[in-house]
């Protein structure tokens, strides 16, 4: 009897685990959003390129980050590492930051946020004849004193798809020598 109860308990635990839920599951009128697993994060943050040099990929990524308004503070071609930061003035009404931060500027200002920051780190790694590119983005909301009010990772798959679409275009432009 104990073995049957133990087996049933294990089955229930697997069925109710966060991995068993889709990103958004409907529970009556309430929407439950689960965080992606580490493997899911890696999959959305990583792309593999074939027949393209490490230097070309790094140059394309640098161009995309700079085009998007990032200040690149570190780029090491030997390690394949790039890091940069993009800052927004939360009070500047001419800039729309709702896509990056998922809220309106009025809401941020009301919460005392004066600067919104997105940090990025990327690495390009050789795997035989392929190059694996992984990038991640982190959001920070800072108050007037420069203290962080919140810090979180961007785990929106569409955000990463949009970034890699820009990298693909930059690689194409480089190949065409435009």
The average pLDDT value, as a whole number, equals 83
Strand composition percent: 35-45%
End-to-end separation in angstroms reads 73 Å
Structure annotation, total helices: 6
Could you name the CATH topology of the largest domain? Alpha-D-Glucose-1,6-Bisphosphate, Chain A, domain 4
Sheet having the most strands: 6 strands, antiparallel
Question: What is the C-level CATH assignment of the largest domain?
Answer: Alpha Beta
* CATH-derived architecture of the largest domain: 2-Layer Sandwich
- For the record, the count of structural domains works out to 2
In one word, what is the shape? globular
Low-confidence spans: pLDDT under 50, at least 5 residues? 3-26
- The whole-angstrom Rg is 21 Å
The residue fraction in helices comes out at 25-40%
The structure class reads alpha+beta
Using DSSP, what is the number of strands?
Answer: 8
Order of secondary-structure elements: HEEHEHEEHHEEEH
Description:
By secondary structure, the protein is an alpha+beta fold. The protein has two domains: 1-34; 36-175, Alpha-D-Glucose-1,6-Bisphosphate, Chain A, domain 4 (2-Layer Sandwich), CATH 3.30.530. It has six helices and eight strands, in the order H-E-E-H-E-H-E-E-H-H-E-E-E-H. The chain has helices spanning 2-16, 38-45, 54-67, 98-101, 105-110, 157-175, and strands at 24-27, 30-33, 46-50, 71-76, 81-89, 113-127, 130-143, 148-153. The strands form two sheets. Strands 3, 4, 5, 6, 7 and 8 form a six-stranded antiparallel beta sheet that branches. Helix 3 crosses helix 6.
């Amino acid at each position: 009897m104990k073995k049957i109860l133990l087996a049933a308990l294990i089955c229930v635990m697997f069925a109710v685990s966060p991995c068993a839920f889709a990103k958004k599951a409907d529970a009556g009128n309430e929407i439950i959003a689960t965080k992606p697993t580490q493997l899911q994060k890696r999959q959305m943050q990583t792309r593999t390129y074939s027949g393209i040099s490490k230097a070309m990929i790094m140059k394309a990524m640098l161009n995309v980050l700079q085009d998007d308004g990032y200040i690149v503070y570190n780029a090491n071609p030997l390690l394949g590492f790039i890091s940069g930061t993009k800052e927004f003035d939360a009070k500047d009404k001419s800039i729309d930051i709702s896509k990056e931060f998922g809220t309106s500027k009025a809401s941020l200002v009301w919460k005392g946020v004066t600067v919104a920051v997105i940090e990025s780190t990327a690495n390009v790694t050789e795997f035989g004849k392929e190059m694996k590119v992984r990038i991640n983005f982190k959001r920070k909301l800072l108050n007037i004193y420069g203290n962080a009010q919140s810090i979180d990772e961007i785990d929106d798959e569409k955000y990463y798809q949009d970034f890699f679409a820009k990298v693909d275009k930059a690689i194409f432009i480089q190949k065409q020598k435009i």
